[in-house]
Amino acid sequence: MKRLLEKTQADLSVAEEKLRCLRLERARAEKEMAASKQMLRMVLDTIPVRVFWKDRYSIFLGCNESFAKDAGLETAEDLIGKDDYRAAWRDEADRYRRDDQEIMASGTPRLNYEDIRTGPDGLPRFLRTNKIPLRDAKGRVVGVLGCYEDVTEGKEAIEALQDSEAKYRRLVEDINEILFATNELGKITYIGPAVELLTGYKAEDVVGHDFTEFIHPEDVERIRKRFYEVLTGRTRPGNYRLLTKSGGVRWVQTSSHPTFVEGKCIGLSGILTDISEHLALQEQLRQSQRLEAVGQLAGGIAHDFSNLLMVIITGAEFVRDQLRGESAAAQEVNQILHTAQQAAKLISQLLTFSRRQVLRVQVLDLNQALADTREMLLRLIGEDVELQFRPDPNLGAVRVDPAQMQQVLVNLCVNAREAMPNGGRLTIETANAILTEADRHRFPETVDFVAGDYVRLRASDTGHGMPEDVRARIFEPFFTTKSPTSNSGLGMSTVYGIVRQHDGYIAVDSAPGQGAAFDVYLPRCSEPPQERAADARPSSLAKGDETILLVEDDPDVLRVEVRILRQLGYEVIEATTAEEALRLAEESEKRIGLLFTDVVMPGMDGPTLAEKLSAAYPDLKVILTSGYPEERVAQLGVPKDRTSFIQKPFSRHDVANRIRQLLDGAPPAP
After folding, report:
1. By CB neighbour count within 10 A (0-12 exposed, 13-18 middle, 19+ buried), where does 442 fall?
2. Rounded Cα–Cα distance for residues 95 and 494 (Å)
3. Alpha-carbon span 334 to 337, nearest angstrom
4. Residue 478 has what pLDDT?
5. Which of 561, 565, 599 is CA-nearest to residue 314?
6. Cα dihedral angle (392, 397, 400, 405), rounded to 10 degrees?
7. What is the per-residue pLDDT for 670?
8. Which residues in 191-207 are b (16+ Cβ under 10 Å) and which e?
9. What long-range pairs does 633-637 form, CB within 8 A, spacing at least 24?
10. By C-alpha distance, which of 565, 561, 543 is closest to 552?
């Protein structure tokens, strides 16, 4: 019994030792397990991804702290036992539950896919996600294990970069300038898409080619030399001509500089700017300035020549009055008068070109004007030229000088007739038109272009046409392709002057063998056309006995005017300067009824003299005369019913009746 008790005690001691060892082992295992769980938690909370796992019912079994924060919770333990409906992305919970069930049912993982989910701040977050089925020791699917990386900041940076690149690309593509780059040999390595708008070539058609392939042959050597100058650092802008795909030419300006990589020049890059329109505008300005200068010269010549014609015409008239019958001398004088009157018409054309001719404007229906001149134009062009009229029945009215418009029609028809020596067809059309800024290039001689509503008069012929060099000079005075004895070369320049004086424009379209079409544009007005007044002129010279103060600085013209006025019965006080006229008027004991004065004189001019004398003699009548048109009369400080203007050279009939109309109080004839 004792031995049994001892043996039992010994067994108990052994059992207690084993139990103590088991307890120690268990404590060590629990400690290691706790350390392992702590390590796992530390790893899960440290890795830069969010980790979670769920059971078969999408209930969270665990997650790391960063995932809990995304869910809007404080700690990972706060999410255990909950589902997606309790997380910040509760609005997407149904989608996540369906996704979990599909993965568990298929047993197939979903790897590296992008997802968008609402964050705890309510803003969307961009995720790169992985999900795999969670299996037990027997391989059975018991849940879902997933992880994801928040790539919002990276994605936003990429999108910002892409947006910046897109904006830069749009900027490069939208600017009118063309960006380009070449290698050191001149091969084009890049060119902007705007090159297609300029040349018709696509960018891919140009890249890889030598740049000189697209340059006008006459500019290649100069631009090739400049290319090597730029490579050595001598940068400066240059102009040259680019060839277009259609065979045309565009002027461009280039600004470029060398491109360096690691200190080595690998080519050059720069910008091409289309300057074709700019150069065209410069040429328009030069042409306009040239025509304006010629016009001023023509006006000056016309003024001086008018004084000479005054002496010739009046002297011839006096001689003719003294000759009787049809003597040879009388015929010679008549020929002198005829020739001088032709010269006077030439002066009128010069003044028209210089836009200094006097206009008597009225509201006119161009269709009616064409109808009135139809018979005359038919006789003018001859039987071998067919004349067609195509009037627009709804044509608007224009404010023009009817006589000047008749001159335009006559000159256009004469020009067409000369272009068709063997006959042809001349078509005259009218139409309403609207000119826009896009039409400016059609009028290279005009700088002050104004868009708006116009009436178009077109004269087109089937003649031999004109080459470009002739077309460019067609409106220059004295320019003609005919023999020197055939015409004056003022026909088309007169048309140009008349049209511009009416604030209109004229364009010509022509090519060799294709005839010519002249388009005249006149500003359209809303007023109805008015009837043209009948031209009534007395048959006899009107005379008088009043005292006239005559002022003229040209002694030859003064002598002629004195003779005319005295022959008409007037008493004449003559002066060669305005200052002398003031003195003579003050000294005169006779009442001066009329001042007859030249406009342009040395010192004080005629209008100023008229204002001074009118202030001293309120009833004084004034006639101004000049080789130039009606200058400063509208601004003259004298009532209009006491003033008139007569242009040199004038006839005795004109001046006689103008004086009487003014002195007798009748309205002056136009």
Report:
1. middle
2. 86
3. 5
4. 54
5. 561
6. 10
7. 42
8. bbebbbebbebebeebe
9. 633/607, 635/607, 636/607, 636/610, 636/611, 637/611
10. 561
- φ/ψ of 240, rounded to 5, equals -160, 175
Return the pLDDT at 392.
Answer: 93
- Relative to beta strand 60-63, strand 621-626 is unpaired
What pLDDT shows up at residue 397?
Answer: 92
SS3 of residue 523 by DSSP: strand
Q: In Å, how far are 158, 191, 198 from 171, measured between CA atoms?
A: 20, 14, 17
Which ranges constitute the DSSP H helices of 542-632? 555-567, 578-587, 606-616
What local confidence, expressed as pLDDT, does residue 110 receive?
A: 92
Burial of 17 (0-12, 13-18, 19+ CB in 10 A): exposed
Q: What is the 3-state secondary structure (H, E, C) of 71-98?
A: CCCCCHHHCCCCCHHHCCCHHHHHHHHH
Q: Which among 127, 132, 122, 74 is positioned nearest to 102, based on CA atoms?
A: 132
Quote the pTM value. 0.42
pLDDT digits (tens, 9 = 90+) for 463-514: 988 887 777 777 775 555 554 444 444 567 778 888 888 889 998 888 888 8
- In angstroms, the CA 202 to CA 508 distance is 34
Is 362-525 CATH 3.30.565.10? yes
Among the listed residues 328, 326, 226, 221, the one whose alpha carbon sits nearest the alpha carbon of residue 268: 226
Return the pLDDT at 302.
64
**Would you state the structure tokens that stand for residue 601, as one six-digit string?**
């004189």
Cα–Cα distances (Å) from 363 to 9, 390, 472, 621, in that order, read 146, 21, 32, 30
- List the beta bridge partners of residue 519: 458, 507
Question: Could you tell me which of 642, 646, 667, 641 has the C-alpha nearest to residue 656?
Answer: 646
Fold of the 547-663 domain: Rossmann fold (3.40.50)
Dist. CA 320–CA 316, nearest whole Å: 6
Predicted local confidence at residue 537, as pLDDT: 44
Contact 512, 464 (CB under 8 A): yes
Q: What would the CATH number be for the domain defined by 47-155? A: 3.30.450.20
What amino acid is encoded at 356 in this protein? R
Which residue numbers in the chain have pLDDT < 50?
Answer: 353, 355-356, 483-489, 533-538, 631-635, 668-670
Domain 175-274 has CATH 3.30.450.20: yes
Q: Report the pLDDT value the prediction gives residue 324, as an integer from 0 to 100.
A: 64
pLDDT of residue 101: 93
Amino acid occupying residue 397: A
668 φ/ψ angles, rounded to the nearest 5 degrees:
-60, 140
| Predicted local distance difference test score (pLDDT) of residue 431 | 94
